[in-house]
Amino acid sequence: MNSKKYALISNICFVLGFASIIGSIAIWFLTGGTTAESKEHAERFGIFVGLWAPTFFIISNRCSRYGANAS
Questions:
Q1: I want to staple 42 with a disulfide (CB 3.0 to 4.6 A). Which of 17, 29, 30, 31 is the partner?
Q2: Three-state helix/strand/coil letters over 6-53
Q3: 71 domain residue, yes or no
Q4: What's the predicted TM-score (pTM) here?
């Protein structure tokens, strides 16, 4: 893979990391519902989506490094 492809994947994963954080907050606040069970589910699902962010940032960092070494 050439360095431009690594740079593209790195940028996409970086944006997805921030989108995961924003999505997590949105899920937590917008899908809360009125019952205790639905609020608990929204909180757990928001945390689950928020846990994707570090993975996307790590993949972005690794692809950036591989791209720098490939050139």
A1: 31
A2: HHHHHHHHHHHHHHHHHHHHHHHHHCCCCCHHHHHHHHHHHHHHHCHH
A3: no
A4: 0.82
